[in-house]
């Protein structure tokens, strides 16, 4: 159901022609196998990308063990710099004791936890659009009307993303193929 002539110029991935799962030959530039729906890209699928979130446990443990340097795992540069400066000031004032070190590690661990929770709650429209596009492609094989609704939703809510452009092209192709197919009596 997917048109193989999509223009995915702005996509960074290349897609294989043969499915590694079922072995079916596919047009060169489609993202999912037209037979089984398996991801054909050379990198992670949108669903795998969504699963690559930062672990709360790892973030807290790293921040507790390494103090401010543990915040690098979260790319939290500003909190890291603040904590390093605070520890340097305490060290220069000869106030750096074991208790101060322990308290600073607890503060870093708490800060890391709050950052991960905030990251999880922050909506990521690009990731959501990629997941929706993946679902719509899967739906093309089973429920075409539902796939069209999902494509329309992607185009409406994510118009300036790669997924929005790809959904618009899929939508055009599906509507074009629906008008050219003869109707059954």
The percent of residues in helical segments reads 55-70%
Radius of gyration: 24 Å
End-to-end distance: 22 Å
Q: Overall mean pLDDT score? A: 77
Number of β-strand runs: 0
Principal-axis shape: elongated
Q: What's the helix count?
A: 7
Sheet with the most strands, sense and barrel status? none
How much β-strand is present in the residues?
A: under 5%
Provide a descriptive summary of the structure in words.
The structure is a single chain. With 185 residues, this protein is an all-alpha fold. Among the domains are: 56-121, no CATH class; 124-180. The model is unreliable at 1-13 (pLDDT under 50). It has helices at residues 46-51, 56-66, 77-92, 98-121, 125-142, 144-157, 162-180. The relative contact order is 0.13. The longest helix has 24 residues, at 98-121. The radius of gyration is 24 Å and the shape is elongated.
């Amino acid at each position: 159901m997917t048109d193989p002539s999509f223009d995915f110029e702005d996509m960074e991935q290349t897609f294989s022609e043969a499915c590694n799962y079922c072995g079916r030959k596919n047009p060169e530039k489609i993202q999912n196998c037209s037979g089984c729906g398996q991801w054909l890209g050379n990198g992670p699928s949108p669903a795998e990308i969504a699963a690559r979130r930062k672990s709360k446990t790892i973030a807290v443990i790293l921040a507790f063990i390494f103090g401010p340097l543990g915040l690098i795992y979260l790319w939290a540069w500003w909190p890291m710099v603040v904590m390093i400066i605070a520890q340097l000031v305490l060290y220069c004032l000869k106030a750096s004791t074991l208790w101060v070190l322990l308290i600073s590690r607890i503060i870093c661990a708490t800060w890391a936890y709050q950052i991960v929770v905030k990251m999880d709650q922050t909506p990521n429209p690009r990731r959501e659009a990629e997941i929706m596009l993946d679902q719509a492609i899967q739906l093309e094989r089973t429920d075409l009307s539902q796939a069209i609704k999902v494509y329309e939703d992607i185009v409406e809510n994510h118009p300036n993303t790669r997924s929005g452009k790809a959904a618009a092209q899929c939508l055009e192709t599906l509507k074009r193929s629906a008008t050219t197919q003869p109707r059954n009596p």
